[in-house]
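Ex. 9. Protein: Flavin reductase like domain-containing protein.
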Amino acid sequence: MTLSSVCSLSVHPNPLLLFNLHLPSYTSKTLHENNGMLGLHLMPPTKQAVTLGRKFAGGVKRDPSHFDAENEDGELFHEMTTPFSGLQGSYSMHYAGDGVSVPILNELEAVFLCTKHRVFEVENHELWVVKVNDILFPNKRYDSAPSGGLLYYHRGFHQVGELLLE
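Predicted structure tokens for Flavin reductase like domain-containing protein:
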């Protein structure tokens, strides 16, 4: 899935990030089953990253019958998806502990390896607070010139711009 926002919550005593998931969510179900272990990817502003962002935002639908039924909130985006299908060679598995491995995309600038700290249910959403256990920078091409990541705004992907003068 593609997250619309990830926020830094704290650095001390533990580095924590915050994001939310709309319910019902197969992603939430999977995260709970995997002890809340995940990799949050910071994608660079490249065509390949945009393609991946779109793929993960919509996923790959597994069951076409989901299109026939309307969910109680009127939304049709709760289908089980398999966004990693068809991506062979585009990711690797990273052992996160407790018998759980998380997929890490090759086309990324950085990945935050996290575990669930707390989850709060608020109406039809879950707020996830995750502890950052490690940050990996597997692509050396971004060492000397960090890109700032990929931004989705106004129905399109954008590159984060230059520093603004104050």
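Check your answer against this statement. Residues 47-58 form the longest helix (12 residues).
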